UniProtKB/TrEMBL annotation:
Keyword Oxidoreductase assigned: yes
An MF annotation (GO) of this entry: oxidoreductase activity
Source organism of this protein record: Panicum hallii var. hallii
NADP-dependent oxidoreductase domain mapped to chain residues: 27-313
Protein name (Swiss-Prot/TrEMBL): NADP-dependent oxidoreductase domain-containing protein
The organism's place on the tree of life at top rank: Eukaryota
Amino acid sequence: MAAAPVSVPRMKLGSQGLEVSAQGLGCMGMSAFYGPPKPEPDMIKLIHHAVAAGVTFLDTSDVYGPHTNEILLGKALQGGVREKVELATKFGISFADGKREIRGDPAYVRAACEGSLKRLGVDCVDLYYQHRIDKRVPIEVTMGELKKLVEEGKIKYIGLSEASASTIRRAHAIHPITAVQLEWSLWSRDAEEDLIPTCRELGIGIVAYSPLGRGFLSSGAKLVDSLSEQDFRKYLPRFQPGNLDKNAQIFERVNAMAARKGCTPSQLALAWVHHQGNDVCPIPGTTKIENFNQNVGALSVKLTPDEMAELESYAAEGEVVGDRYPQMANTWKDSETPPLSSWTSE
């Protein structure tokens, strides 16, 4: 298997000192939500390949599986690999008595952290995100416990995922937030109105999940035909008949522009995210080494301001049909009762 052809630069994520590869690797799909778990030896080989290629920022969560993705990463990190990577995981979605709930109470935060450290086989996590915000617990209380975990050396940096601008500000006042993870891609741009400016004002790094539109910007409508019944993407509004037909036109335009530029549509879509600024780190996920190599190739795709504007016109407001999640789940940031479907977000 040929090595990834592009050297991966490093970047400062946020203003607190964390340095990561300019592109990360989202690990969720290896174990959960995107169909059946993939063979463990293949996924460990992929992770090792990514690290060797210079993609050292690995993203997981205790909810992926649950727990099985962290266990997978724990195995992949053995033999000296841990020292070469920046490891990010998340807490906040509890599976107790067969029921899912969002939790941010201090006892849960601490127990979740201890569980993740054990499964990952590490003493410290580089970046620890609150995966979803518990409206029942003031963010200041949750942050207070996270601050203690930093002081104890169990986590180095704190992040938030899918948080509102006001929550980000309140959390940052208790302890600096290093990164906010949010969905940002050519066809998911609602974060640009409020969240991105807030992060930039506060010196918080931006981690873009699903930068390829959950694979849609790689292969278009034919992606849906390949999804198993266990793949939660089958139930996303944008992938439903009718919506899919209209959204397919966006992909076809991206694909045509990619052909003109001599790259793949996924490389073009990823390059668009990279061109948003040097404070943005996309974390595309994959389960295939060849797709990983292609994603890394996006780092060498250069876009002019005119090309950026052209790309954005393809997925302008009103062009993308369907919400990010079922049940209008894209409106539930920080809400008390998010729909279950939205908890599988990355």
